[in-house]
Amino acid sequence: MLQSFAQWVTFDLLRHTPGTGAAEVTAFFVYDSVKILLLLFLITQAMSLLHMYLPIERIRAILAGRNWYGFDYFLATFFGAITPFCSCSSIPLFIGFLDAGIPLGVSSAFLITSPLVNEIAIGLLISLFGWNVTMLYVSAGILIGMAGGFLLQKLNMERFVDTTLFTQKSSCSCNGTLPSRSILRASFADGWQIFVKVLPYVLVGVAIGAVIHGQVPDEFFAQSLNVHSVFAVPLAVLVGVPLYSNASGVIPIVQALIAKGIPLGTGLAFMMAIVGLSFPEAMMLKRVMKLPLLAAFFGIVTLGLILIGYAFNELL
């Protein structure tokens, strides 16, 4: 049905000539945007309802001040994976975790994983690349979060945390104590707010992907990135870091890049760099992290993404 709708818009409504670049761009944009936006709406509504019942303060209390022998890193990454689009951003939650006494390493594991692994990215990756690639991506995001948090803890970087912001509390109060109808109304409103907020990134991402798909020659990226070079993965990560988007917006771009000959591991490393590291994130983190900790955080995550990109290229 979506394919037929895309063809109707492209050829009947807009009257593009079959086989032209404009027709390819339009059909790709219509098909992918409708598909992704439908997924985005359904997933955000479902996860918004789930978030209404997540006792965040209780989770903080469980993680704080206990020796979990390393399992707390996994719990933090799992929590990051299921709470990327709560009304609270990941950085205020990160500050709240530190304020609650959760170690820097465990809090950083959450902060690293939260933008990398989320329900929307999982849903879109399954629809575009299948279960095997999606599960490898999720495992890689959790692994980077756990390893990055562990390394930051071992480096004893707590002294580079700005404790003056510890009075900032997360405003998230998703405790499921409201009446059922109120929960549904609040959940729908929160999900819709998230959908509207993410919508521009999705459309921009699909538009870029459509142009790449319809206008850029197949051999362009193979030549410009030299995809068989050992430097392809680091270059893709370094190019991705200055960009700013979320997984739902960048996945269509990655899909188009992979279709043009970029290896899957290189494309996923590029995607993870965009969603996991960015200049706006650095500016926000600069308020709570002093320069040595901020540099260590970005350096460790960047190295992890490069290693994951090489591993994916070997496995896939």
Précis, in short:
The chain has 316 residues and is mainly alpha-helical. The protein contains 15 helices and no strands.
List the helices and strands and how they pair.
Layout: H1 2-13, H2 21-51, H3 56-63, H4 71-82, H5 90-99, H6 104-116, H7 119-129, H8 131-154, H9 180-215, H10 218-224, H11 232-240, H12 247-259, H13 264-276, H14 279-285, H15 291-315
Please explain how this structure is put together.
- The protein has one domain (2-315).
- Helix 2 packs antiparallel against helix 9, helix 5 (90-99) runs antiparallel to helix 6 (104-116) and helix 7 (119-129) packs parallel to helix 12 (247-259).
- The chain has helices spanning 2-13, 21-51, 56-63, 71-82, 90-99, 104-116, 119-129, 131-154, 180-215, 218-224, 232-240, 247-259, 264-276, 279-285, 291-315.
- The chain starts with a helix and ends with a helix.
- It is 73% helix and 0% strand.
- It is globular and about 65 Å long.
- It is an all-alpha fold.
- Name the helicity range: over 70%
Could you give the count of β-strands?
0
Whole-number total of structural domains: 1
Q: Main β-sheet, in a few words?
A: none
Q: Beta-strand percentage?
A: under 5%
Structural class: mainly alpha
Segments where pLDDT lies below 50 for 5+ residues? 85-89, 167-176
Distance between the termini: 31 Å
Q: Which series of helices and strands comes N to C? A: HHHHHHHHHHHHHHH
* Approximate shape: globular
Defining traits:
15 helices, 0% strand, globular, 316 residues
